[in-house]
Amino acid sequence: MTPAGPATRRIGPGGPTAGHRPGTISFVPPSSTSVRPTVIRRRVIAALGLLVLLVPALTGCLRVQTSMGISSDDRVSGQIVAATIPIDENDKGPELTVPSALAGKVRVQEYAQDGYVGSQVFFSNLTFGDVQQLATMSDQSAGSFQLSLQRAGDLVSLTGRVDLEAAPERGTDVQFTIAFPARVATTNGDRESDSIVSWKLPAGEVSTLRAEVRYSDPNTRGFAGWAGIVAGGAMAVTLLIGALAWFTRNPTPARTPSNGRPGS
Length: 264
What we know:
Blueprint: E1 42-50, E2 62-70, E3 76-84, E4 106-113, E5 116-126, H1 128-132, E6 145-152, E7 155-163, E8 172-179, E9 184-187, E10 190-191, E11 196-201, E12 206-214, H2 243-249
Parallel strand pairs: 2-8
Antiparallel strand pairs: 1-6, 2-3, 3-5, 4-5, 6-7, 7-12, 8-11, 9-12, 10-11
């Protein structure tokens, strides 16, 4: 079984809507309404954790694709896809639920593409504090994607560590893409454009992510863009998706569906 390639991504004005194709992210930078007179020279923007879905299974096709964009006011918009090949017509794959605190900012819809089924999460104009609450979308822990963003003046640094040693090497498709509001100066990822970087993360390995970009500190323009930012130290948050339970209750390898779509 060879997983399908990555979905098309688009960064542009306007928040994600139901009409957007899978793989599309868009955001609207929030307005700044007040000005703070002092500038913190070094500040930890946040450390975000997103699911990379480590599953202790020897068989099964897995797709996890995370795309996000950071606006010039340090707001985050994007999407997460978590999907698997179904073992029968009743299997819906990983299912996620929107936290009540994020109602209106996050929506989840069923995902069905290229023979995969699961969930697709769209989020728009989140503060970094909001991103923490994505961890409540599922109570099944299957691994973590640790990602930190730090600001020193106008320099923003992204670092991350992804442990996929327990993921099945056959049929695993894990990707992460991030769009910055300015040209990326240095990175160990693949440049999709001047401001967009992506990583295709191999199963069975531990990978690191790194990128640096310069753009003006929103603290010098207004306070609104910093609502929810965690300062003083890095933290790790894990977005949990219930695919581990899916594999546990379906230990047998997936069969080929009757419609001819590939199984694993």
